[in-house]
Design goal:
Helix 3 packs antiparallel against helix 6 and helix 4 packs antiparallel against helix 5. The relative contact order is 0.14. With about 300 residues, the chain is α+β, with helices and mostly antiparallel strands.
Length: about 300
């Protein structure tokens, strides 16, 4: 049975990997250094919102470290153990990042609720200085990663954007607290930031799990591709269509195509060329097509339809 295996890598793949690795590395060191400063400062100014952000940043630093390692690992070429290469390792980074943030958020929520029930005064001026520093550091790191194309980079970038938003909220709260006696504002703000983070993280966790469980990519319309292929001369039907994604960017397509009236080998070659021309319009890094003649029984089809 004729098979057509095609593998294509987008232009600039290696360059984008190098840029991504450098961006994640820079964000990792920025975040880690700032986290230690934040933990000390949070205790110093007695602010639970700064401490909750410190915990969030610590989670981010761990995530960035994991992402950096797995991002590099994901670019290792295919071998006999991982025949598709290691690109799905970056998904593992995205999954671990999300899980770390969910766990960290649980601790923060507990601490914020406890502080709401037993309010303590915080140093509003100290919070203001930290907020300005936080916006600057996280804003720069988020900017470095904002152009990232991998799911891993986008997850990390979201972490950092959330940090910037969190620090902007701390900045506003610190100004209010400088002029009014509102110790509850600090833990209430902490709670709001964490719930917002949790909402976004759960959304990304779902996206990551769909890819890991080999769900169909959201940016691919399987029915549209099928209709285009069925319009090719001699193609009468399709079955065993499988579409999944390696890591959210590069997808895999496999299908069996039944033909009618194909009498010569050049005609079969033309059918395959026409199918490939359609598939090249989509972000597939791998596709495998099996072309079957009209009187040829498909063993897989027989098994699934018994």
């Amino acid at each position: 049975m004729p098979h057509d295996h095609s593998h294509s890598h987008p232009h600039g793949y290696d360059h984008s990997h190098n840029v991504s690795a450098k961006n994640i590395k820079a964000a990792f060191f920025l975040n880690l250094g700032f986290t230690f400063l934040e933990i000390i400062g949070g205790f110093y100014v007695n602010s639970v919102s700064i401490l909750s952000d410190a915990l969030h940043d610590l989670c981010d630093s761990l995530s960035l470290g994991i992402s950096w390692y797995l991002h590099n690992k994901s670019k290792t070429g295919a071998d006999s153990k991982f025949t598709f290469g290691y690109s799905r390792f970056s998904l593992l980074g995205a999954l671990l990042n999300s899980v770390i943030l969910v766990v960290g958020s649980g601790f923060v929520i507990y601490e914020a609720v406890n502080r709401l029930m037993h309010p303590e005064p915080a140093d509003a001026q100290g919070m203001l200085y930290f907020a300005l520093l936080g916006i600057a550091v996280n804003g720069y790191a988020a900017f470095r990663l904002s152009g990232g194309t991998s799911l891993n980079e986008r997850v990390v970038s979201w972490h950092l954007i959330e940090d910037v938003l969190g620090w902007a909220a701390v900045l506003i709260a610190s100004v209010v607290m400088m002029f009014t006696n509102a110790p509850w504002l600090d833990p209430a703000l902490s709670l709001g930031i964490t719930l917002f983070i949790l909402y976004n993280v759960i959304g990304r966790l779902k996206e990551t799990l769909v890819i890991l469980l080999q769900g169909s990519p959201a940016d691919i319309d399987a029915e549209e591709i099928k209709l285009k292929i069925l319009q090719i001369p001699h193609v009468v039907s399709m079955h065993h269509i499988n579409i999944w994604s390696l890591e959210g960017e590069h997808h895999v397509y496999t299908a069996h195509i039944t033909t009618k009236g194909v009498d010569t080998f050049p005609e079969m070659i033309q059918v395959k060329r026409d199918v490939k021309a359609i598939l090249k319009e989509y972000p597939f890094s791998h596709y495998t097509i099996e072309v079957e003649l009209e009187d040829e029984a498909c063993e897989l089809w027989d098994k699934t339809n018994q």
